[in-house]
Fold this sequence. Notes:
The complex is a heterodimer of chains A (347) and B (342). Chain A has 347 residues and is mainly α. Chain A has helices spanning 2-18, 22-30, 33-46, 54-79, 88-101, 107-131, 136-154, 162-166, 170-181, 194-212, 214-224, 226-231, 236-262, 273-283, 295-315, 319-343; strands at residues 186-187, 192-193. Chain A has a single domain, classed as ABC transporter involved in vitamin B12 uptake, BtuC (Orthogonal Bundle), CATH 1.10.3470. Chain B is an all-alpha fold and 342 residues long. Chain B has 15 helices and two strands.
Amino acid sequence: MTKVNENTTAAKSDSRKTEINKALVFFDKAGVWILVVCLMAIGFIINPSDYFSVGNIRSILQAISLTGMCCAGLAYIVYSSNMNDMSLPMTIAISGMVSIQLVPFGIVVCIFGGLLTGTLVGIINGFMIGKLRANPIIWTLAFNMVLSGIARVAWGGSQIYPDVVAGGNEAALATAETFNQLARTYFFGGSVSLMMVVMVVMFIISYFIMTHTKFGNQLKIVGTNYETARLSGLNVVRIITLSYIICSFCASVCGLFYASMRKIGSYDNGMGYDFSCLTAVLLGGMTLLGGKGSMVGVFGGVLAVGMLNNVMTLIGISTFNQYLVTGIVFLLIVWLNTKSARKLGRA
Amino acid sequence: MMKKKKFNISLINTYRSYIFLLIVLIFGAFSDNFFTMFNIKSLLSSTSLYTFIGIGFTVCMIAGHMDLSVGYMATAGALVVLGMHTLTGLPWAVSILIAVAVGAVVGILNGLLVTKAKIHSFIATLGMQYVIRGGMYIYCEGKEISVKGDYGLTDKLSSVPIKFLPFNVLFIITLICVIGFSIMLAYTRFGRNIYMLGGNLETAWLAGINSDRATIIVFMLSSMSCALGGALFGIFQGTATPTLGEKGIAPLMIAMTATIIGGTDIAGGKGKVLDTFISITAIVAMFSVVTSLLGKFEYQILLIGFVLALCVFYETLLKYIKQKEIGMRPNLIIKYHEETGK
């Protein structure tokens, strides 16, 4: 009698082990791309004639390109288990402002100066967090406020315009025009813009860095377990500093295009980018614990946010209600991600 | 000799919010009209919204969680209470209760997402922030809601009950809440359980605390405090907009800054509500002093950023030095102290 009981319990525990929910496995593999496909289907049902037209696809990609550039950098931070870079908004704003201020010195100096400013922010962040082990959220939040104060005080709290900065100088005016045209450059008869190309190239490079280089593999170990990485002899300070520099560099590229698109350098240029970019990255399957997710997923997350906004606009949901829908979809996807990872023993 | 010096450093770190307030007050003496009855009264009453948000944020942070939804929760509280009174026509008491109940529901949802769905609190409340914002905009249709005609409670909140003291009723309610939460955290069993949750969740569970229930209650308390603060501030101002209490910086950021300056540990298990309150008072006083001395709004943000960065840098440096000392031999540590004088 007892033997039978033992057998049944053994069989039960065995069946519990081998029984894996197929839906969860599928969700773990496909992740946010399921949402992308669903949104495509919904869009096609609502608007069969126009949804897959060049114009609509271009408008979706154009809308996500700025967020996408930031996300390609922010993914490194989330991947290395440093949660979030709260200084993203001011990195975007200040690199745009510096580059506009440098317009009289020619287009090369202007772009180079903007990128250098962003990289400098990354170096300071990386030193504080990589070397001194400051709390990532608190330090970047504090540094964001400092940068915000510096930008406001240095420019007297006003916005700057490329044309105004150029003054009456002919050559400078031409540079300002070139700068404004950065975000308005189109290829192939207006179907592909420079911003989209830059975003896609950034994602491709990031994908190769993450999967095919020594740095990417080391980053995964650091993100999974910092202490293990340190004790196994990796130069953790260099890895984390480098990831912050990459993140800030991507943000400054975004800042250049942002300033060029709005034709304005202002301290509120990147307002809200800290949380909206984090939303897209987390939607793409990365977790705050670090070391999980991929660049493909992050691109899916960015695409999903853009397509969600597009579909909601097509349905006719007002901007106010879009916040609600975005929040609910975000919570649902993150919950499914967490649940599938936990049930499959990967959390 | 060495002992005395170390004592001083820890003293500065413990009472840094008080020192911050003192420095601000010393600078305030140089500006005209800072120490007038009217100015102090208006300063203290404008701390109330930030204080309520700060209480919520601090309690959550002590329990080892981050509640990012507090800022919008306060705004939602203000909109709900004014909407219930003005649009629906309910009496004040009932509308305040409804606002607090909305806060409780949101808090319970936050807690369930964190404990049962096992989503990191930073993400769960980030999502909840969008949900509250959307719900709020739907409720008020993007417009401001104002008190129409019935200014009885508004007058009562801004009246001064004790003569010769610059405390109006709103500030007294805020103070009572701060003291109540301080007593709850320091002297009740539940309050000390919160510290334990933040210190080590596993240990707390093994010690017999129902950690899930306690976490849900913590989130509920946080959201309720924010909703109450928003409601009172909305009535006090007589109007509520979706951007309540924003002065160049979102209220959430001010509460976050004050919580960190007040010395609450982001990992949890350490912190005091009273310190957060003192640093909020110092920040608001600093805004006023900077405006009257420099006459520019921009310097406020620069200075608050520098104060926060300095606090974080100081704390990080202390931790870094401590980390370096791990593994050193004790006799060498004493030698190291004598040489460097730390």
